[in-house]
Amino acid sequence: SQQGEEDPQALSIQEGENATMNCSYKTSINNLQWYRQNSGRGLVHLILIRSNEREKHSGRLRVTLDTSKKSSSLLITASRAADTASYFCATDELGGTSYGKLTFGQGTILTVHP
Amino acid sequence: EPEVTQTPSHQVTQMGQEVILRCVPISNHLYFYWYRQILGQKVEFLVSFYNNEISEKSEIFDDQFSVERPDGSNFTLKIRSTKLEDSAMYFCASRTLSGNTFGSGTRLTVV
């Protein structure tokens, strides 16, 4: 698989349910970031988790990082219809040639039904 | 909250024409990037820029592409002779310790 692969590719849930998206990567990283993109729009930075962190929270978002498994998960609790968007993980590789260069995954399309 | 500003939001150009995509990064940031996203595909790194020079470029960033920071505030991406396959969303980003801040993008359509 490629760096920053998300699963599932698409997720459809009802409002109020939790949504979990997973990301796997291949190289060692400085940090991993999650972004949201509404259809055809810009990328909104959600959360950054550093390689020495295991869990981070921001509002209804919870991100975990397991560097031994090279994986991360994004949990959105109590989802709302407005959470409908594509969610991408992006890795900042350790020892990369360019500071802050990100490698994105294919993304998970989340649909929250009212 | 500081923003990265991109103009125009949408540009349509004839194949073979030159286009310049403009970005105003956050003022005290030092690292700048261009990415692109072809419709329905993932976001791809094009180039990073630091200290007034390119620090890394991808295979996509061939001789038809160039970047410039002409006046200490704007950061531009020039595509010299556009091809149909250059149609994509182009994102500018600048770097903070808390992550990369992306602009809202320029949708380039080559016809």
Task: Describe the 3D structure.
The complex is a heterodimer of chains A (114) and B (111). Chain A has 114 residues and is an all-beta fold. Chain A contains no helices and eleven strands. In chain A, strands 2, 4, 5, 9, 10 and 11 form a six-stranded mixed beta sheet that branches. In chain A, a hairpin with a 5-residue loop joins strand 4 and strand 5 (43-50). Chain A is globular, with a radius of gyration of 13 Å. The model of chain A has no long low-confidence stretch (mean pLDDT 91). Chain B has 111 residues and is an all-beta fold. Chain B is globular. Chain B has no helices and eleven strands.
What's the helix and strand layout?
The complex is a heterodimer of chains A (114) and B (111).
Chain A: E1 5-7, E2 10-14, E3 19-24, E4 29-37, E5 43-50, E6 55-58, E7 61-66, E8 71-76, E9 85-93, E10 102-104, E11 108-113
Parallel strand pairs in A: 2-11
Antiparallel strand pairs in A: 1-3, 3-8, 4-5, 4-9, 6-7, 7-8, 9-10, 9-11
Chain B: E1 5-7, E2 10-13, E3 19-24, E4 31-37, E5 44-50, E6 53-57, E7 65-68, E8 75-79, E9 88-96, E10 99-102, E11 106-110
Parallel strand pairs in B: 2-11
Antiparallel strand pairs in B: 1-3, 3-8, 4-5, 4-9, 5-6, 7-8, 9-10, 9-11
